[in-house]
Prior knowledge:
By secondary structure, the chain is an alpha+beta fold. Helix content is about 40%, strand content about 25%. The chain has a seven-stranded antiparallel beta sheet.
Amino acid sequence: MPTPLPAPEIVAERQNRARSWFESLRDRICTAFEAIEDELAGGPHADLPPGRFQRTAWDRANHDGAPGGGGVMSVMRGRVFEKVGVNVSTVHGSFSPEFRANVAGAGETGAFWASGISLVAHMRSPLVPAVHMNTRHLVTQIGWFGGGADLTPMFPDSAETEEDAADFHAALKAACDAHGADYYARFKAWCDRYFFLPHRNEARGAGGIFYDNLDTGGAEDDRWEADFAFTRAVGEAFLAVYPRIVRRRMHDTWTADQREQQLVRRGRYVEFNLIHDRGTLFGLKTGGNIEAILMSLPPEVKWP
């Protein structure tokens, strides 16, 4: 059963800690990705200037017109990262009457607070897998954490994909194992179910982990701290493993046929995010910034 919220001052202090963590993780990821841009030594885009993140702040209004927080988009279009967005938002207010029934604890008022980081990277090289990572903290009449990370290689059956996916899963498994004996098995299976395109009967990519409504119960202080620690561990695992995968593949040469395959595979990403992704729905239903919500879409894509 969900644990009731503690005193308002404790809730506010926790919200500040969560928001600060998401913002600091964003800053570290952006620094790491810009360093990768600087390191490219060859290939068809090596003569381009290294990419740098451009940040755009946005404000949100509630459905009744009252101020409702906002966020910052951080987007880079570079020579390694064709398009990568690392967005952080912290929003509050009330869900519209037609949406609040979909959110645990929204109750009659629909009051909520939410903060999180959302990242999607689409790479120039078809040999470097795309990636998604998102972690968040949401508070209604109850509070919980959610998120995860998943890898989308362009060539699912290759030996290189097997190596990259094994490293990616190993990093996430280590984060899970440090916090719950059953976390990896549960959250990997959840990811496999969630990031699946039923209209094509295929997985979006090589998977990862996905979790939501994480409220482990037990003593209130210990429970929240444990869930927050796990959410931080997911972010740390991502920051450790994904740059390593990029550096392993980004200098390799690729062909026009491989680029064509990449563009077609990106179509699957678009289909999932526009048809099935709950985060997209949440953003649209809560008055989020449209450009930030659709940041996940690739800059170029094809359907055969």
